[in-house]
């Protein structure tokens, strides 16, 4: 079943068109990756889905409902959570307080302890540091915290914007293993990522975005083997 659908979506920043008549879909249970160079429109697409950027054309549907004009906070209530580029943790709050902020829109408060324990099982390091201020964590730990905070909203769709950016290689591998585990536990994932090797090896399907338009789509592993993708994004001639 299709969970998310973008149909002919366009987004402008003033007179500059960042995304042009973009059409993509994400089915329930999938990991779908959006790859592309800097400035291709990947993060703009994510902001459009989460409601931070208004559309200048097209339509967005989620779980069969048109959400094109729905406010960003109400999209969280519907089941869309975004981990923004740059992580955006609350630096003065503890790890536990940051995670609690992720659940601000939830009405089913009785399930919060179990969901918090699930986050701590995925990220044992967060449990060890639960009383530590978010701003004192390493980059990798902050990324774990940002993902954990988004999971506390109990999303149907998790939007991950450049989760590996600025991380050491060992953290990158760990983050992508956890993304796969989150997906296997039932959460659908849309992933924007410059690390094409990791993204395509984990994604069921992927789209290649260039200057605001989709230029290729296919199974993640098929695109990983595509010579033009290898040359452009994997540094292999």
Automatic annotation (TrEMBL):
Keywords from the named record: Amino-acid transport, ATP-binding, Nucleotide-binding, Transport
Gene3D superfamilies: P-loop containing nucleotide triphosphate hydrolases (3.40.50.300)
A molecular function (GO) term: branched-chain amino acid transmembrane transporter activity
Domain ABC transporter, residue spans: 4-236
InterPro entries: AAA+_ATPase (IPR003593), ABC_branched_ATPase_LivF/BraG (IPR030660), ABC_transporter-like_ATP-bd (IPR003439), ABC_transporter-like_CS (IPR017871), BCAA_Transport_ATP-bd_LivF (IPR052156), P-loop_NTPase (IPR027417)
Family to which this protein belongs: Belongs to the ABC transporter superfamily.
GO BP terms: L-amino acid transport
Domain of life: Bacteria
Membrane-crossing residue ranges in chain numbering: none
SUPFAM superfamilies: P-loop containing nucleoside triphosphate hydrolases (SSF52540)
Protein name: ABC transporter ATP-binding protein
Any Pfam family: ABC_tran
